[in-house]
Design a protein that fits this description.
Length: about 500
């Protein structure tokens, strides 16, 4: 008998120790949380992965999955989708091998599946995202966790709004809002709406912002009436309770008069509360309607500005062509008009598909370098470093970007300098073209500004400053990016990153 008691106590102590471990973050985990991803995303991601591996080795599954999910988000933020999917696959295997209950495993799998769904949404793969959403629904139901069921409704709304299914999005979001409203968790509903609006703004999803804001205003109007009704109900109940207590304990006339006086005062206070509440509610409704109108006018204004600029550029071009293009100022205006039209077209067609062709990398790079050979200064060395392989790219966009960068390098590299054009394979679905020179370095504080158009007034005969912004938009349209390497200090290095 004593032996059984000792074994039972030992099991309870071990269980308590494991639970304490599950709730205690490691130093690696804390270090990862202390790193600002906007300053060093690679370091933050790497530290979270180390923390995940550490937790996996110690069978601390819940904390390990949390770190894996955070590292995944930092992977696909830089478009490293293969690495992100592989990490989630590892996390799912760790969950399967753990000693968690089936309900706990379903809850942890839900976190991984939700991250996959968000990646497919970012990739605009609606069918794949919907498949993950269905898996999430099963996992949330199997977990028996009410918080996950609410989170599922929230993610359903994001999916529907993202892919233009506004009616379904409104229905799901209304279901979630009604559910929390019935539980009188008004603050949670308000927080969910604010989060959804913030996510829409962060992802530049105008439809999501508009739909969320419209639903939020409607809910605000209705919940104000519910809160007032709750207050009135509470006051009425208080009045009824007071009457019952007083009637039971003291039926004297004096006490009844006191009750009457108290009820009159309470009714007066109730009337005052209703009046003040009505004034506050009316003021809030007027303010929110004014904000809605301001947002709508701002969006309409931006769209009209973009169309206006593009139309002006298109209308001026025929006139410029009738002038003597041999005059530098006329040629500068004509180039500026073409660049504006190109930039506007790229910004307005970011979500359209582009054609890819199989391209031999060495011959492609050598052909580009050959085009600037006659433009460089004396004794400038031109180097091409490209492995013998082929890659799927949009030759028009990539050629435009690399030629622009090489021409800039030819202009700014002094005599005796060096210009490089390199190609590097970074992963199964990612690769880079690098253009480097030994010219004057671009200051770090201007690394982002060079890709932004119209930041300063220029003499158009010396360049309109739209070349790099156009290249940046082309890179983004190819599901890639164009940046300046801050680690390269011998001159300037531009990095064109592309992802399959």
């Amino acid at each position: 008998m004593n032996r059984r008691i000792i074994i039972l106590i030992t099991m309870l102590v071990s269980f308590s120790f494991v639970n304490a471990q599950e709730d205690q973050k490691s130093e690696l985990h804390k270090r990862a949380e202390s790193i600002n991803p906007s300053q060093d995303i690679a370091k933050a991601r790497s530290t979270y992965i180390h923390a995940f591996n550490d937790y996996a080795n110690r069978s601390l599954t819940r904390l390990g999955v949390e770190c894996a999910v955070k590292a995944t988000a930092l992977y696909y933020k830089e478009n490293y989708y293969k690495e992100a999917f592989d990490l989630l696959h590892r996390a799912d295997l760790i969950i399967l091998e753990s000693k968690k209950t089936s309900k706990e495993k379903s809850g942890l799998h839900y976190l991984c599946t939700k991250e996959r769904m968000q990646m497919y949404i970012k990739l605009r793969k609606g069918e794949s995202a919907l498949d993950q959403l269905r898996v999430m629904e099963n996992q949330a139901r199997e977990s028996g966790d009410e918080a996950l069921m609410n989170d599922l409704l929230y993610n359903k709304a994001i999916y529907y709004y993202t892919f233009g299914q506004n009616a379904q999005g409104n229905a799901v979001f209304k279901e979630m809002a009604d559910k929390l409203t019935k539980q009188k968790e008004y603050d949670k509903v308000d927080e969910v709406y604010q989060t959804l609006i913030a996510n829409g703004r962060k992802s530049n999803n105008a439809t999501l912002v508009a739909q969320s804001y419209r639903s939020y205003i409607e809910w605000k109007d209705s919940v104000s009436a519910l809160k007032t009704a709750d207050q009135i109900g509470a006051l009425k109940k208080q009045i009824a309770d007071n009457e019952a207590v007083i009637a039971d304990k003291d039926s004297s006339l004096t006490m009844r008069q006191a009750i009457i006086v108290g009820l009159i005062v309470l009714a007066g206070a109730l009337a005052a509360v209703l009046v003040v509440g009505g004034v506050v509610l009316l003021r809030y409704i007027m303010l929110t309607r004014k904000q809605k109108k301001t947002i709508r006018l701002a969006n309409d204004s931006n769209a009209l500005k973009a169309k206006f600029i593009s139309n002006i550029s298109a209308q001026l071009e025929p006139t410029f062509k009738k002038l003597d293009y041999r005059i530098p100022e006329v040629q500068a205006l004509l180039d500026f008009s073409k660049h504006i039209q190109t930039l506007s077209e790229l910004e307005n067609t970011q979500n359209t598909d582009i054609e890819l062709t199989e391209t031999a990398v060495p011959q492609f790079c050598e052909g580009l370098m050959e085009q600037i050979r006659g433009k460089v200064k004396a004794n400038v060395t031109l180097n091409v470093n490209a492995p013998k392989m082929s890659v799927q790219i949009n030759k028009d966009y990539v050629s435009h970007i690399l030629l622009h960068l090489l021409n800039n390098a030819a202009e700014y590299t002094p005599e005796g300098g060096t210009i490089w054009l390199e190609y590097k394979k970074r992963g199964a679905h990612s690769h880079q073209f690098l253009v480097s020179d030994t010219g004057v370095s671009i200051p770090a504080e201007k690394h982002e500004d060079v890709f932004k158009p119209f930041l300063e007034i220029r003499d158009l005969t010396k360049g309109d400053g739209l070349g790099l912004p156009i290249c940046k938009q082309m890179a983004l349209k190819m599901n890639g990016d164009l940046d300046i390497d801050p680690q390269f200090t011998k001159g300037t290095r531009f990095v064109l990153s592309l992802h399959a």
